[in-house]
Amino acid sequence: MFACDGCGACCKNLDKSPIYEDLNRGDGVCKYLIDNQCSVYENRPLLCRVDESYEAFFKQIYSLEEYYELNYTMCAKLKI
Ligand code: SF4
Ligand code: SF4
Prior knowledge:
Number of strands: 2
Helix content: 25-40%
Structural class: mainly alpha
Bound molecules: iron/sulfur cluster
Strand content: 5-15%
């Protein structure tokens, strides 16, 4: 399972990718992020679910190890 530390950095940088346009409240922050927590966590979109997105979109392209590494690299960049 992907080791997300819950920092919230990805939820505050939605303007980095057009696929999150519908969630962006206008300044890059997700409209569902409240007190740095996802207010719809149990029902968050598939695009916000790292492991489930792998199964749905990336399984044919990357090994799980490669996919996690790409995600950890992106997390590190967003945390800066
Ligand atoms: S930036 Fe990475 S570690 Fe932080 S909340 Fe998003 S997925 Fe989790
Ligand atoms: S729906 Fe939740 S997990 Fe997805 S970007 Fe918004 S706050 Fe983050």
